[in-house]
Amino acid sequence: MPDERAEKLAEIVKSALDEPSETREIFLDRACGPDAEMRREAESLLDHDAGLEDFLKEPALHVVAETFAGEEGELDGETIGQYEILSLIARGGMGEVYLAQDTELGRQVAIKFVRRGFGTADFVRHLRHEARILASLNDPHIARLYGGAVAPQGVPYFVMEYVEGERLDRFCADRGLTTNEKLELFRKVCSAVAYAHQHLVIHRDLKPANIRVTADGEPKLLDFGIAKLLDPGTTGSGEATMTLASVMTPDYASPEQVNGEAMTTASDIYSLGVILYELLTGEKPYRLTSKRPAEIARVITEREAARPSSLRPELAGDLDNILLMALRKEPERRYSSVGQFSEDLRRHLAGLPVLAHKDTAAYRTKKFVRRHRGAVAAMALVILALVGGLVATAWQGRVAQGERQKAQRVSAFLEEIVRYSSPYLTQSGSAGGGVSMSEALDAASRRLETKEFDDQPEVKAELERVIGESYREEGDGRAGDQHLKSYVVLATKAAAGDETKLLPVLSTKAELLFGAGRMQESEAVYRELLPALRKAYSKGNVSAGLLVGSLNEYGYLRRTQGDSKDAELAFREALTLASRLPQAAHFIVGITRSTLASTLADEGSFPEALQTAQEAVEDGRRAGLAGTPSVGFSLTVLGGFLTDDNRLAEADKVLAKGEAIFRRFLEPSHLWLGDNFRNQGIAFYKEKRYREAEEKVDECLRIYRAGFNSHYDQYPTALIIRGLILSRTERMNEGERVLRDALKMRTDSLPPQHYWVAQAKGALGDCLARERRLSEARPLLESSYRTLKLDFGPNDPRTKEAAARLQELTPG
Length: 812
Hints:
Layout: H1 4-18, H2 24-32, H3 36-47, E1 79-80, E2 83-91, E3 95-102, E4 107-114, H4 121-134, E5 145-150, E6 156-161, E7 166-167, H5 168-174, H6 179-198, E8 201-202, E9 211-213, E10 219-221, E11 228-229, H7 255-258, H8 265-281, H9 293-302, H10 308-311, H11 318-326, H12 338-349, H13 361-371, H14 373-395, H15 401-421, H16 437-448, H17 457-473, H18 477-495, H19 499-515, H20 519-538, H21 544-561, H22 564-576, H23 587-602, H24 606-622, H25 629-644, H26 648-665, H27 671-686, H28 690-707, H29 715-728, H30 732-749, H31 755-770, H32 774-792, H33 797-809
Antiparallel strand pairs: 1-2, 2-3, 3-4, 4-6, 5-6, 7-9, 8-11, 9-10
């Protein structure tokens, strides 16, 4: 581990190199203070760079500081393979760069030797793999990487094109380029980065020092050596993740990079935005005054860049908006590609309209919305529905004053909730002050307990519904259900026999009964509701969304009751209505298709189920929903099927992607996250990673208990896997108890021949067999195998698992 002194020295040297020569002495006085030895060491290291360009210098943040101690000797005059070392070009955190002569090809090259401490076997292996990929990049604005090897002393090195030229910012300043000339030059840089992205490579350390401009004005991008490969076939495998993931230059790093999150092409777009901002304004978007990683991360992720025109008034308008769009904190809100960024610059130069638009208060509020997407979305949809419906009705000349007032009061109330909890819409010290959404909902609940809305029961009913659904999205199912029950009571009374108004109320009532485990009562409501909904929909009196939502809930209920065929029909009917849904509700389609896949598996159609689950993921991606919770749901379902099919490595990757999405958008207690943990626990169990499996399943059960207790149909599934883990880790008695509880839950709620009952029997039989209680285990295992074979056939993965258990009981 590096000591604090060496780390401080590394930071001082890096910062000094960024200082203009005329202020470097002042900087060293301040940075080193009375420590004369520190000052001497810093000056000695800086002397190596005197008169030299910053060619290929690596950033110092988080770099192992010991690389500045015990320097290797100068290599001038030595020969490495076919390369004769001529002189040192630069020395940085990761290694030295030398000018060398290629004696075979008669050309000058730059050779970068990797520092002692980075030459581990894994690192060397990765560099070799990456060098082969990067050497294939062939763009006139990218310095070529000719290859990589390991010197006889065991030191890895890269051989690169030698570029003579000035760093980008100095080139522009020295020649006094106009704004338009800078933009034209910058677009060539964008072209090179776009080319690399098309070849599945991101740079990860774009900055002016890594962009050289030759004497004839052509830019060259240097040092793709720490790029992260984007090949989806290798991502997450270890081959595609760079050992130096934390290496960065803070001034140009994206928010996701300083937070240690996944790097994408959007990260390079952000860095390009910082570079262009600096070129056009002469200032960085924000000044980092501390070298502490936590403070750097706080500034980069929280502080907004000043509008460029506040520094240079001539940038007002398009350039303001273009730069600020590239610098948005959220990757998904930046330009979708470097090419799109460059095209907006071209359109600005041509006097055409640009894609970028002003980052309004509404956009800033989305920072808050992203953290509470479901809750705010529910409120926003109600506001939009009320306002939109009001406008349409008023246009037809049939709006009533009462409806108008209702819409206005609901809208005003919900907007107050969003404002109360949004740090972007409140000032420090004022009411709310940026509190959490849960606190805002609690405040809203208290208001509903007053007499404020007693004169408008319909308004109060609608608010109870929205607040109830918002609580659910925040992971508080109990509070959500209480408000939804109040909604049902109030809305039923307000409907006063109006069937159209009563239909959404019945839908919520049926859903609440289902969630409480009162399945027969819920089914009875749905059987009354669905024909009425179909009739009302055909007349245009209800939305497709209400019918689709009710069909999905009914299908899930029937699947839970063991009638998979009825469930399949409901899901397929819902999918036929997909084209009638508004774009904002398209996420429902992927969820429906994924649940249909689970239903097909229940019916024994495992190959079709697996294919349907894969289609659900692809449909979501094609619809532009990749990275959203709905695709996370589909990934979770697909991961479960891959686990059943024993494609465990694939399952691990798919489920990890789903978890990452959920952690980004959903609350930690969300049901979907629990489902993901359950499937991960099953996969880890099959891989005999019992400790990890138990952690995932315990977290899953915590989420299930908090939201649904044992009413949730997958609760026994999680208990089963926990019981098996206990059995396999020599806790037989506890495992047996858990498995018997799970089997009782299954037999109490399902037909005796349901395959979930058979699976529970097989798990208990497996546990008893491990205790050598063979006479008790055998009938359970035999019954499990017979049921699964009858339902699914001998080649289904679940039947094969049951057969294997029985085979272990009776070898040969």
